[in-house]
Amino acid sequence: MLISNEWNYGDMENNNIKELSREIEIKDSILNFVKEILTAKEKEDNFTDYIKIDNFVSFVENDLRDALIKTKLYDQIEEDEKKYYFKEGIEKWALTEKKHWIKGKTSIAFIGEFSAGKTTIINKILSRDHDINLLPTQCKPTTAVPTYITGGKETNYSFFTPDNKLKAISEETFKRLSKDVLNQVDGVSSLIKYFVMTSDNKALENLSILDTPGFDSNDASDSEKTASVINECDVLFWVVDANDGGVNRSSLEIIKSIPHKPIYIVINKIDTMDATEIQDIQEELEAVFADSNVTIANYILFSKEEPLDTIMKPIMHLKSSLTYHDENFIFKLKNFIDKKVELEEKELKKEEKNKQEKKDKLDKWLEFLNNQIKRGKSDCDEITSNSIVKRLFSSDKIKNLVQRFKRDYERFPKIEESRIETVISYYGILGKYSDIKYKLYILKDCQKKLNSFNF
């Protein structure tokens, strides 16, 4: 009995040592992970482009907008155009422009509840239906943090921060991350918005796939963060395990919180059921979404036995129809300013013509008044001459001169009033003309600076 106790004590001690070693190993792994995340450097190939994009955004949101406000043109712009060019539109353009993993690609998010089969479907796409798990089905990072899988010249790993920076990490560090790590190290998840994994894969030439954690495995803050990442994608594929028979309330709320995105429901693992059961599940889902006012683009019946085309056809169709990333934003903005310049140039020509017409009229009035003054002076000289004075009361000529002088004197207020109106009108047009020239000067300066940005 004593020997048995000694053996038990030895086993317990060995187990404790092993357990302690595992804990130390885990702690060491966590420390290395945190160290690399905290010391990760921004990817150099993106740094210059980021600065250029930020400078462009700053110019549009500040200099260009202020110029339009200064010239009183901003208030004439439609509210939708203000939002597009100076608020939401340019911000969305800038964010997407910085993200090579979604720029110019169809970006699709696979979402759903834990163990619904999202990663298996993604593997099917990546391997082009050749049973090769390019992405581990239990890949810890993708079950802990949203992860983009996209095409690239080589396989590498990085993470995108909440303040929009892309930082490089090693494959070893990428694979260290798990939900346990996130739970044990407070604050690490706040440093990582999502991972970006690039792979030299032809299936990803024009496609970017977002793999997400299962919503029922996340807490509220994780779900909120994942929802914000999903909102960057063009289209959502919500994967439902046919064996579960539906979606839970929290998942439904997340679907409802993501507006203006096509949503496809993938009823997965249908190989475990007969046709009647599958039909019942689809009808039940249709009723749930109808009651919740959620529009579903289509339902896709899928399993590991189904050909890849079942899910790729909708994706290929989407490639030609999605326009969420406006790659022509800069062209449209330049065209927008060009039209403002063109309109002001037309207005300037119009006012230049009006100005010349008023000036010509004013010159005629001045000529007329000068002639009236000359004639009046001549009449006065003739009246006051000695020879004339002697015959003042007998000369018809003098009488006519006096009457004409009196008539001109009576007309003078009306003539002067008309002259003043012409002068006021002229200087009013001159002021408007100067305002337009000032607007054009500022607009053309902005136009020149805008054209100096090349992307």
Kindly describe this structure.
60% of the residues lie in helices and 11% in strands. It has helices spanning 2-39, 44-70, 79-86, 88-97, 118-126, 140-144, 171-176, 179-184, 220-230, 249-256, 275-291, 309-319, 329-384, 386-390, 396-451, and strands at residues 106-112, 147-151, 156-160, 166-169, 194-199, 207-211, 235-241, 263-268, 298-301. The chain has a 9-stranded mixed β-sheet with strand order 4-3-5-2-6-1-7-8-9, sandwiched between helices. The longest helix is centred in the C-terminal third of the chain and has 56 residues, at 329-384. The N and C termini lie far apart (82 Å). The protein has 3 domains: 1-39; 101-326, Rossmann fold (3-Layer(aba) Sandwich), CATH 3.40.50.300; 330-451. Strand 3 (156-160) and strand 4 (166-169) form a beta hairpin. It has 15 helices and 9 strands. Residues 136-141 and 320-325 have low confidence and may be disordered. The protein has 455 residues and is an alpha/beta fold.
Relative helix content: 55-70%
Domain tally = 3
CATH superfamily of the largest domain: P-loop containing nucleotide triphosphate hydrolases
The assigned CATH architecture of the largest domain is 3-Layer(aba) Sandwich
- Largest sheet strand order: 4-3-5-2-6-1-7-8-9
Question: Nearest-angstrom radius of gyration?
Answer: 40 Å
Largest sheet: 9 strands, mixed
Question: What order do the SSEs take from the amino end to the carboxyl end, as H and E?
Answer: HHHHEHHEEEHHEEHEHEHEHHHH
Mean pLDDT equals 78
